[in-house]
Every structure is written in C-alpha cells, then in structure tokens.
Amino acid sequence: MNKTIIDRIGNTPLVKSMVLNTNPNVSLYFKLEGNNPGGSVKDRAAYSMIKNALHRKEINRTSKLIEATSGNTGIALAMIAAIFKLDIELVMPETATKERVATMKAYGAKVTLHPDGIEGARDYANAKVENENYYSFNQFANDDNWKAHYKTTGPEIWKDTSGAVTHFVSSMGTTGTIMGTSSFLKEQNQNIQIVGVQPTDGSSIPGIRKWPKAYLPKIFNAKKVDRTIEVSRDESIAMARRLAREEGIFAGMSSGGATTAALQLANELKSGVIVSIICDRGDRYLSSDLFE
User: Fold this and answer.
1) Active-site residue, from 31, 42, 128, 224
2) Which residues of the chain have pLDDT under 70?
3) Same domain flag for 125 and 221
4) What are its E.C. numbers (predicted)?
C-alpha cells in the first residue's frame, strides 16, 4: 500500500465518448492524462528524463538544470525536481498563462519568460547549456521522452482496449507521446493507424506545433505516423468547450484539437476503436479566454 506520488503517474482512465461521437459503429475513447498528479501527460516524460539522467549520473543535486517548455512539461519537471530535491530553471514564452507560471513556482522552480515564443525559449536554454554549464533535458531530442510512452502509455491503451484499438490520435508538440505510443502499438498490431494532429497554417495552438525545419524535434520519425490531420485554433477552442459542456471532460486547447481530429476520423470510418489523448486539465487555462 506504500504508494508515493510517483506511483500515481500513469494508468490514467480511458473513458468512452457518450455524446460527441455519433457514429454507432465506431467507439471513441478519451485517455484522461489530466489525471496524472502533475495534471498532464508530461508527467510520464518528466519522470523518465529525470530518473534516467540521475541513474546515468549525468546530473546530481548540485547540477544547474534548465529546460525550455510551452507549459505542461515545465510543470511536470518542476514537480519531479521537487521530489528529487533538484534546482531547475524553466523557460517559457511570455504568453504562458498565469496558472502555469504560478504552479511551477509553487513547486520551487525558477521561471523565466521569453518574448520570442518557444523557439526563443529553446535558444535561450541552449545558450545557457553552452556557455554557463547548465544541463538541459532537451525533451525535443531526448529518447527518455518517447520511451516513457513506449513503456507506459502504449501498453495501457493496448490493455484497456483488450487489444481492440484500431486508431490512435495524438496532438504533436515534442512528439514524444505519439512516437512512443506508436512504437509500442505497431509492435502489437502493424495495422493500427497512428494519426498525428497539427495546426493549420497561421493557427497558434498551445501544445500543438508545426515546427520550422530547424526546430523539428530530433525524436520525431515521420514513418511512425500514418496520417496527419490539421485543425484550426477556432476548432480547437470550440471543441475544448464542447468537451467540458457535453462530455464533462475539462481540458485544454490541444485536447480540443485532438478531439476535433478524432471526431473527423470517427465520421469517416465504417467501424473501429479510436483512442485519443486528452493531454491535460482545463484549470490551467482559466485566466485565458479559452472558456469565456
């Protein structure tokens, strides 16, 4: 019974769409990653990256840690760093919501806001690594990111659908979730379709990116994604609101985007079992206009 907070990472609920999916021959399930203790899917990767860096003796309690993040990874790293008594600086776009900043600080992290978006934050963190002896987990190029999902998210989906899953839908940011889950599911059944979600041109959706080539995550392998569906910011906002009001699922904009794509897919299929990632909780967006 001696469960710690770390033992509560993963094994998140899988719940069936009761309202939004209207195709009677398709089952759509939502994997509720907001039920992780840090409130998002990123708890998995953060724990994996910190645990393995400590195990390899790449870091210790005197290390100066830094990471660029759009939000959820930062909260997860702040939580795990607190547990392991590590100091960490988290660099975010200055557009980050107040809730995100406050949560990271509550865990004891230093927060730096950058005016030039996530790309600027990444450049700032890289400069600290190169010039000031900082250590960055570099979630965009860290195999411990995607391996967390290979070891946990993929097996959970396979088990909880009794191997019946036919399609997996995930927003693509660092791409760790989709890379690791795809790797595991394809080993179980090569016919499972992996669907990535990206923003339409000009759409800014926190947690979903269409990266410039220079910033494309090194862990990304296009061969692991069978199809990409693009969603707009307006669609993502509207669907996040519908998730809350119609399904009772309180989540952020990227989850709205993933659900938009999952419903498009559900309407195309003659039959199937779709699992879509709900990557975080909606309470970290209340100071934004997402739910107004």
Assistant:
1) 42
2) 1
3) no
4) 2.5.1.47
